[in-house]
Amino acid sequence: MSAATGVYQSLDKLAEFLGFDTVQALQLWMRGKLCKPYWDEYTRGCTGVELSKGKKARLVDCHSVLKHLAEGEAQGNRKFSSDFPDTRNWKFIDWQARLLFKIRSVNQADRHGIFYGKNMNEIEMATRAWQVILRLNLDASRENRPNKRVKAAGEFDHWRTGDDEAIPMPVNPDGGAACVVWTDIPTEMEGNGQKTTITLTGLVHYTYEQFLKKICSELQLKECGYEIDQLSVAGDPICSDSFKEFLKLAAGLKRKVLVDLATKNCPAELDIPTIENEEDTSRKLLFDIMVAEKVTSGFDLKNRFCKWSLIQEWLHTSKDSDGVQGEAGDGLILCEPTSEDLQRYREQEKWIDNKDLQRQGHPEACKALGIPNPDIPRLPGMLVSAKFEFWQPLAIKAIKEFEEGYLRGGILADDVGIGKTFEAIGLEQYHWNLRKAALESNLEVAAPRPTLIVVPPNLIHQWASAIKAISSDLVVKIYYGGKHQTSADGTEYLTDILSKDSEVFSQTEEAARTTIITSLRTLTSRHGPSVLRKVIRNEIWEKDESTPYASVMEAVNDRMKGMKSAPAWWRHNLKGLFKRVIVDEAHEIRKKKIFTAVTLRWLEAPSVLLLTATPIWNDLSDILGLLYQLEPHKDPWSKESLEKLGVFATDAWNTTASSEEFDPWDIKSDEPASCLRYTSESVEYHIIKGDISLVTKGERMREVLKACMIKRSYGSLVDGQVVGKALPAVQNISVNLAFTPEEQKIYEGVFGDCMAPARRGRRGKNDARGIISASKFRRLCLVTSWTEFDHIAPSYTAKKLNDRRKNGVLHAHTILRDINNAKRQRPYHIAEPPESLAETQIYPLPSEDNIREILQSHCRGSPKLRYLLQLIAELVILRKEKLLIFATMPAQVLWLESVWIIHVFYFAGNPLMLLFRSYSSLT
Questions:
Q1: Which of 222-236, 304-318, 380-394, 657-671: highest mean pLDDT?
Q2: DSSP 3-state assignment of 602?
């Protein structure tokens, strides 16, 4: 690869750099719809320019093309992004800018593109797109080369390859050599110092510097990442001192001069902007500097990062000389961890890290899963924009082995952010690949059945997007809600209540690659015990309407009692219709007898995968509900199951003579009945409640979890690599916000009112164990966000807000009106307000169309909102990034939604300028 421009002459290295797992995948992409049409457009455009200008097309450097592209797109001109641009007066650089834009933008928007979902900035994408262009240009030049043993690196059409052919006359005698030709061409220009021969023709007099410059230019050495190391003729070096003698020698040769050339790497020429005045430098410029340095990998980021951090602090901190009406003490603290902090964190991660729940051997796992390139782990069928991290194939292989064991599956308990969703989708892709290969080989396969993915409602669309962003094979359907709809990306919504006759369960191969996403509540309310009870009740009443309600319910309870699975006659019984059930946030089913857990057991899927970062929510007994979901369909402790496992023939059974006293830990591990150790009943009675030592309990529990769980933390070592180091770096920024004096008085009054019972102690006792109620804790949380919340907190509870939000998010103006009404009815909710607290102020209610005053009213009393809106301006508007806001109470969520919605409508025209202008006045 060229050190200066990143030109890859090796397809293997280019494929690796662009994220392809194989060269074949790269070539397929280059010939596909995301690359070739735009290259063909470029070559046609350049051909037209060549005919009109009489010049050959030649690539300029990436920086110049990027600059030209930015100028053409400035102020909404869309010179290059338009679908039908005016190309009548275009030059070569215009077509190159168009090509760079199309490859970059299309591959970022299309889910099959090389930039899709990569979260790259424009510079990183442009760098990679330019390398593709250079490779395409190189391939095109090789295709047009008449003799592969001869190469004219300069764009000339007047040279000859044979010694008997006429020597061309100089095109520009004042410029030096008329033509420079390779005679001995290296197959790869990566061998530094390798000698090769060049031919100089049509020589005239020029200086030594012109001579070197001409050779570099004609052979495009810099474009290939090299510079001249040594020139020689017949073993004699050519240098500035001997150059005149060389010219005399060349003058005596009428035809050609054969010169030996040795090359070496030339240093990268970086175009990084300099900082002249730090206080006037925008954060965007500093961010671009960091990106440029990161792309080149030629500099230490530490110095400039600290400089960037200082600029951030300067921009956020109010200064006395600025005359800005900001809060006292309002500033930003950037908490960068020290090396001691990081070391302490890693040690703590090691303490909670259980190596029994981890796997090693990434290459072996890739081989077992059919991943062709372990360095770029990607299953066949995955998009080029998606690939596994080095620890994820190990989890997929482990889950596959769990499914093949006594239990029906396993627990994926990786820490948050390590990629449980990615691993679960990878498992689905792996099994589809197996089935697809078996079908192609005419092997017998199981009947096609879809997979059910059960997730919290707020994660349904996130899962659907993740599947589409990872796999090109899997089909996504959503089973949630009652309205018939189809999303823009083609995701189908299943609106009818599922039954065995539903089309989604048809015996087609599409069903085998279909994933149905639903929520626990939807599944339970449509296919669980609660709805079955209603069906049975209605059935009894249909036979005899005069039956008393108490008798009906008693009959219902009798029929439901001891029911291990849904009855076969029930139309909405989904027993055996799914090949796999995946449950996200599986700690929600940690209790065995809740309706959601029973509903999942009724599905009787052959395979179950449970995802949770917190398998132990309260205590060790939480694992019982998870193990219950993994147990075989039939009761493992029934007489039939015990007889099948040969329990009655064991010495341990003969000693106990009852299933209640039989302990599978008393038999050898290689006996079939030892699998009973992994059941929830055995864990409960022989480990958690067992009369054994704590050491023995720990040993037994470790073996149980090892047979069904994978859990990695950020500090886990996988094949000698730390998992956390492969994850994006995290900045911990703490912002100290302060109320205005008036806001501070209100808060202190509310705080004192809430803490009064705690100070008096519980039950009148003056001790230090005083507590506050949940309602007072809620009140403090809301007032901390916005002091005006104290007037509407009683009417903005979760239950009441659900009714009010049926027609959508409350308008921000409505919230202000509710506050004023509450103030008139009751000035303060403070039992003993402090003397310094002024009377309740009822501010004039802005008109509904005066968005600016509405925003100002909401920011009054909330330093958090004032700062948050500035943060949104920078991250969402300026940087086009996503922002996730965590709130404690539903009222806070509703409030933030209402403020953000009117903000979006108001500032849609010129959001960046108006945001900063408005928010500076709102403080």
A1: 380-394
A2: helix
Does residue 923 register a pLDDT over 60?
no
> 609: pLDDT confidence band, cut at 50, 70 and 90?
very high
Give the pLDDT of residue 572: 92
* Among 3-7, 434-438, 573-577, 634-638, the least confident range: 3-7
The neighbouring-strand residues paired with 732 are 335
User: Would you state the structure tokens that stand for residue 577, as one six-digit string?
Assistant: 């219709």
- Three-class SS of residue 656? helix
Q: Return the pLDDT at 122.
A: 84
**Whole-number pLDDT of residue 903:** 67
Report DSSP state, residue 75.
Answer: G
Distances in whole angstroms, Cα of residue 356 to Cα of each of 265, 300, 716, 724: 48, 38, 11, 19
Of the two residues 203 and 561, the one the predictor is more confident about is 561
At 618 the three-state DSSP class reads: coil
pLDDT at residue number 409 = 93
Query: Distance between CA 500 and CA 576 in Å, rounded?
Result: 9
Residue 266 has pLDDT above 80, yes or no: no
Q: Which of 143, 136, 144, 117 is nearest to 31 (CA)?
A: 136
Tokens for 28, please give them: 């397929």
Residue 289 has pLDDT above 50, yes or no: no
Amino acid, single-letter form, for residue 511? A
Beta-bridge partners for 515: 451, 476
Spell out the domain ranges in the chain: 11-143, 173-265, 355-528+566-631+679-710, 735-751+780-922
Q: Are 508 and 548 in contact (CB under 8 A)?
A: no
3-state DSSP percent of the chain in helix, strand and coil, to 5: 50, 10, 40
CA dihedral 887, 892, 894, 896 (to 10 degrees): -80
**Could you give the CA distance from residue 527 to residue 502 in angstroms, rounded to a whole number?**
14
Q: Which two tokens stand for residue 510?
A: 């599409």
Report CA dihedral (126, 129, 135, 136) to the nearest 10 degrees: -120
Report the pLDDT averaged over residues 295-322: 39
Q: Would you call 453 helix, strand, or coil by DSSP?
A: strand
* Cα gap 542→551, rounded to integer Å: 14
**Residues shown for the chain:** 923
How many angstroms separate the CA atoms of 371 and 392, rounded? 12
Beta-sheet strand order (sheet of 195-201): 179-182, 195-201, 256-265, 226-233, 236-238
Q: Which of residues 846 and 158 earns the better pLDDT score?
A: 846
Q: What is the spatial distance between Cα 80 and Cα 83, in angstroms, rounded to a whole number? A: 8
- Tell me which long-range contacts 804-807 makes (C-beta under 8 A, separation of at least 24): 805/894
Residue 497 CA, distance from chain mean position: 33
181 bridge partner residues = 199
The average pLDDT across 132-152 equals 66
Return d(Cα 443, Cα 447) in angstroms, integer.
Answer: 13
Q: Are 604 and 407 in contact (CB under 8 A)?
A: no
Q: What is the pLDDT of residue 615?
A: 83
Tens of pLDDT along 154-184? 332 333 333 333 333 333 434 444 455 555 5
The answer to whether the beta carbons of residues 891 and 796 sit under 8 Å apart is: yes
* Alpha carbon distance 198, 210 (integer Å): 17
Find the distance separating the first CA and the last CA of the chain, reported in whole Å: 53
Q: Virtual CA dihedral for 290, 293, 299, 300, nearest 10 degrees?
A: 30
Residue ranges of the alpha helices (H) in 513-656?
520-527, 529-543, 549-560, 595-603, 623-630, 639-644, 651-656
Nearest to 291 by CA among 299, 476, 633, 340: 299
pLDDT digits (tens, 9 = 90+) for 718-768: 988 888 888 776 666 778 888 998 888 888 888 888 877 666 654 454 444
- Where does 355-528+566-631+679-710 sit in CATH, by number? 3.40.50.10810
| Residue whose pair of structure tokens reads 């050190």 in the numeric block | 3
- pTM (2 decimals)? 0.62
